[in-house]
Amino acid sequence: MASSTKKNLDLSKEQIKDLDWKKGTDANSFLAEEQRLSKQKPMIHQVSQKTIGKFSARINQMTSEQLDVELEKRQLSTSGDMDIRRIRLKHYYKYELTFQCKNPLTMIEQQFEYIAVVDFEATCEDQQDNYQNEIIEFPIVLINVQQQTIVDKFQSYCRPIINPILSKFCTDLTGIEQHQVDSAPTFVEVLHNVETWLNERKLLLPANKHTFAFATDGPWDFTKFLQLQCQLSSISYPQWATEWIDLRKEFAHFYSVKRCGINKMLAKLGLTFDGRPHSGIDDATNIARIGLELLKDGCILSLNDSIHSSDPKSTPRNNNNDDDSIVFKD
């Protein structure tokens, strides 16, 4: 868990309106109002590892029924396997001790207003080395972080240039038909449409820009597929895709488990895959569902990977079982 991240009590809508009104007055009045509001914020208490350890040990002794009772008391989800439910309660206990007030999860300050989940689909062949994958589906699923819900989606197919005819393996895997890519715009056109879509939602425009980040399942969408596609299309790599949230990595760290794929993450949370596996928009939607569960459990989603730090040669197959640091040690 990103314990070093700043956590503050969000201002209520009434307080925000009050601050906006005060901006029209003199500076002294405005500063006085800020000081008044800051006094209303709860104190953040330092919690020792020894204290956390005691709570952790107590939770480890709980039966499944006892665990669910404690979760229900705090209006937390009782879904998921025992390990996930234990960690969920441990995180909540830590927030209770830190803020010493009711509903401590509401006091966590997230870094982003929106999170855009992407999961590309690309041309492929079965067991063919050095194959040049071209992106053929560009989906985005947009999460409103404060509302903890999916609020919008974008999807477009892309017409491949190097290998315009989809292999049977590719169609069987992704469900994408030849006629869908034949009538689709090129990747360059789709990228332009993506940026227009983001700008319309004030996610890229400098003025009135909402804070947002992209999120993926692993590093490969950006380090491998997007980077290669930009090279094949002879265009610059987009600046907005240089850093992102790797939800696979965040999931493993927050819940103290080894990294795993979408289906296993969903299963650990007590969820099942909704839609067709390897459909870009369905994959992105299910990755977003995992992100929402992290948010609901108090995970602070922050940038944890970049185009400069990831290895583009790595593959999902050899990264499924990477070790992650354990948040709670008993």
From TrEMBL:
One of its GO terms (molecular function) is nucleic acid binding. Residues 309-319 have a biased composition (Polar residues). Residues 321-330 have a biased composition (Acidic residues). Residues 114-300 form the Exonuclease domain. InterPro entries: 3-5_Exoribonuclease, ERI-1_3'hExo-like, Ribonucl_H, RNaseH-like_sf, RNaseH_sf, SAP_dom_sf. Keywords: Exonuclease, Hydrolase, Nuclease. Pfam families: RNase_T (PF00929). Residues 309-330 are annotated as: Disordered. Gene3D superfamilies: Ribonuclease H-like superfamily/Ribonuclease H, SAP domain. The keyword Hydrolase applies. This is Exonuclease domain-containing protein. It comes from Adineta steineri. The lineage of its organism: Eukaryota, Metazoa, Spiralia, Gnathifera, Rotifera.
